[in-house]
Structures are given as C-alpha cells and as structure tokens.
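Hey,
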Amino acid sequence: MIASGRTPTGWSGSFPGWLSWGTHHGRDAATTTRSSVSTTPTPAGQTADSRASSQVSVQLYTVREALADDVAGTVARLAALGFASVEPFGPLALSDELASALAEHDIAAPTMHQRFVGSDDDALDALFAAAAARGTRTVIDPFTPPDRWGTREDVEAVAAELAAAAAVAARHGVRVGYHNHAHELQSVLDATTAFEVLAQRLAEVAPEVVLEVDTYWVAVGGQDPVALLQRLGDQVVALHLKDGPATADVLDQVALGRGSLPVAEIVAAAPSALRVIELDDSRGDRFTAVADGLAHLRAEGLA
C-alpha cells in the first residue's frame, strides 16, 4: 500500500509486506486459504494456443498467494494461459522482480492499483515516476473507505484529491483513475449513487481522471452494471470482470460465465474498456477460474 503521506519506493520486502495489502478488496487477505491458488503446473488443457487480445488483462491480486511464493513462476503461468497484459497492485507493482518477470514474457502492465488519494505531492511524484518507468500509464486508486461517501461534500472532497493527484501524474505522462467497491453504489445522494456523483464532479473539475468499474461490486451494491456503464460512457476506461451470485462473500465468486452476471452485455456497454479478469477469492482454484474466464471471453468473441 502507498500510505498517505509516505513516499513509495521500489519494493523488496517479504511476503506479508504486500499480501495483506489486499484488505481493501473486502476480505482480509491474511485469512485467504492458500489452497485456493494451486502451486501445480498449469494443465496442458489450460495453455493458450495464442495470446489474448491486449484489451484483456488479469488483476494479479487474484493469484497473490502464488506470487508470494514465486513471482517469476506465477507470471510464467499467466503467460502460458495467454495473457499479454496484467494489472499489478500495491508495492509488488513497483518491484524490480515483477518488472523483470513481465519483461521476460513480453507482458504489459497498462494499469496498476495503488492507494494514493490524500497523499502529499512528494509521495505522488515518486509513485507516478515509478509507474511511468515501468510503462504503466494509468494508476488507479482501488479503495477509499465508506465514510467518505455519505454526503455530496464527502464525494466532492474525493474528487478534489483525485484532481490534485492527476495534476502531479500528468507531469510524468500518467493518468489516474478510481475503482469502486459496493459502498459507493449503496450510498445514494438525491437519487444518484455516490459513484455517479463522483463521475459528475470529475467531469466538471478533472475530466482527465478516469474510472475503472468493478462490475461485480456494482451488482453487490444493488445497481445494474450494464445500465451504469451506459450512463458513465467514455469516463470508463477499464472493467473488472467477475462472476458469481453477486453476494458480498468473495468466496462465492466463480469463473466468468458461471455466475449471474451478464458478462457479454457488460462488455458491450463499454466496448473500448480494458477487460480485467479478477477474483477476490473463490472456493475453487483461482488459476483454473482465470483460465476458464479467459476461455469464456474467447468463446464470446471478447478476447
């Protein structure tokens, strides 16, 4: 995590230093069962015949336990599945070890997750310089707490902090974005979700700030992800694609095409957006779920 007021640097820490960073996803990563990410080689049936479109990515948080054991080997497995792009997170995203593994397999990281809202200019400057050096051009804040979404004034303050970060990022040729969870959709202000209030405010004060819509958390938040994407339009540059019964229990998440979300309709509502496959957790093996999710996108002509 890039904590508020702290300068981000290249990461060289141990496993707990970034695995627990993922608590913003709605489940304490320290409680995740390591068996949900297998350490066995990718089965031959999961190996891609060709690389996926560069418009398809995978959020590395999905395979965080495997990364903690073996960064290079995990990246190699994702490459074997056919991924040409990934979305790193937290201190791992800024590590030389990950950069080397991605370069070895010619995998891009067009987006990354870093918590930066509310950080000072020095911390922002260091973060965006590091992101640019690794070829990442969109840095997305994945979480701000629910107590920042209760009033219009709260949301406008978040927008102002994103705008301030965007001004620093622009000096490095980088843009910033925001990723939602359920609470931004559950908070409704004068008949408009707080997330849409944010989008409206950003359009006024910082149109360069973009949105990454986590379509699963939209559904958990009680909103229709297809309708939301249609309302947000070109502000959306990336999607988190997940599937399941749209419950808050992340263990209920499954491979794309095996749950209740209308994946094809979601993609059609934001056809130019980056399609990032993710599972926050699962009762099954997440490498298998990622492979099956990519296969589903391919079968639908979306990868």
